[in-house]
Amino acid sequence: MNDFSAEAMGLVIREHRQAQKPSMTQEELAEQADYGKGGAVSISRIERGLVSPGEHRLAGIALALHLTPAQLRQEAEDRTRSLARQRGQWGQRPVKLRDQVAETKRRHAEINEKAAQRSKITQEHGEAFNRVHDVVRDEFFMRFVELAKSISGAPEPERPGEEEIESTGGTPTAIRIETMSAGIANAIRGAAAGGAAGAAVGGAAAYGAFTAAAVFGTASTGTAISALAGVAATNATLALLGGGTLAAGGAGMAGGILLLTGMVAAPAAALAAAGFYVLRQRRNKKEEERLRTQVEAAEAALDQSQKGFDAMVDVLSRATVIMEYVEVHGTHALEKWRASLPPEPRDWGSLGHEGRERYKEFLTVSGCFLAASIINVPALLTARPDDVREMDKAIDETLRYADRTIRSII
C-alpha cells in the first residue's frame, strides 16, 4: 500500500506542474496525461488533496511531467512525513479554552467540506457511469439477447471445467468472464424456451434476470432461477445483484448513489449529534472535550477511507470509459450483425460461419460488460486500508482484461 497522503501527492504534482518551462496549466496537464472531457477538474481535485490518482492515471501524469511514477510516489511519501512533522510541531492544543473552541470549529468545518466534496465527486462519477451503463444495457445487451433468442439450435456453451480452474490456481479473469458469457448464453436458451428470464419485461428487470442467472445460477433460496417466474424471479435476481440498485433503474455497480454518497459522508454525519455545540459561542471544557474527540475520530475515519475512496473513483472512471466504447462501437457492430441475419425463423446453421463467430464474440463482449458492471464498489469504501490493495489489484485485472478484449472484438 502506498505510504503517502492524497494531500501530499497533490502538492507534489502541483509544484511540478508549475515548475515546467513554461508553467503548465491544469488543462494542459490533463490533456497530456490523457484525461478525457473535464480533465482539468480531475487535476484540480488531485492537487487539492481530495482524491489521489490510480496507478494508470499516475503513470500518465508522471509522463506529462517528465518523471516516473516511482519518483512521484517517493516525493509524495517524503512530503507526507514532512507534513506530519510540521503538524506535530504546530498541533499543540491551545492553552485557552476560547482558542481550543476556535481550533475545533475550524477542524469541524474542514471535515464537513471534505465530506461534501467526496459526496459530490462520488455522485458525479456514479451518475456518469449509470447513464452510459443503462444505454449499453438497453441498446446493446438486451438487443443482443432479443436477437439471440430468435436463433434456434445455438449450441450449448461449455463452461470451464473444475480441472481447468484448479490448474490455474483459482478463477482468473479470463475464465471468470468466459463462465459469465456461457451463463448468459444458457440464460438466453432458457428464455427462448419460456424460462424466467424471458418472463421479465423491459430494461432493468430483464437485465437483472439474465445477469443473475449468468452469474449465480440459483436464487438465495436455493431454487433454480429458471424455476421462478414473474415478480419472484425479479426479486430474487435483484437481491443477488446488490439489494435493489437495479430496481431503482441504475447500474449493478453504482446504482445506489445515495448509498455511496452516504458512505463517503458518514464521518461528517457522525458529528451531527454534537453539532449544536459548534454553533454555541461558549461551551464548557467538558463539552469542548466531547466535540474534539468526535472531530478527531471523524478525521481518522476520513484518512482511513482515503485509499478506498481513491480506488472507487478510479474504478468508476475506468468502467465508464469501457461502457462508452461499447455504447459507440458495440451498438454499431450489433446493428450491422442484425442487418446481416437471415429472416425469421432462423436457425444456427443459417447464420453462416461469419454470423456464428459474431454471435460468439457478442457473448464475450456481454460477459466483459457484465464483469465491469457488477464490481462491488461499496466494498472498497468499507474495506480496511490493508485490504484495498488486493481488492484494487483484482478489479484492475478485470477492467484491463474487459477493455482489451472488447476493443479487440469491436
Give me a quick take on this structure.
The chain is mainly alpha-helical and 410 residues long. Helix content is 72%, strand content 1%. A two-stranded parallel ribbon has the order 1-2.
Molecular structure report:
The chain has 410 residues and is mainly α. It has 2 domains: 1-92, lambda repressor-like DNA-binding domains (434 Repressor (Amino-terminal Domain), Orthogonal Bundle); 115-259 and 307-409, no CATH class. 72% of the residues lie in helices and 1% in strands. It has helices at residues 6-19, 26-32, 39-47, 55-64, 69-90, 97-149, 162-167, 173-192, 196-199, 203-215, 230-240, 257-264, 266-269, 275-279, 285-304, 306-340, 352-373, 377-382, 385-409, and strands at 151-152, 346-347. A two-stranded parallel sheet has the order 1-2. Helix 10 crosses helix 11 (230-240) and helix 17 runs antiparallel to helix 19. Residues 196-201 and 218-252 have low confidence and may be disordered.
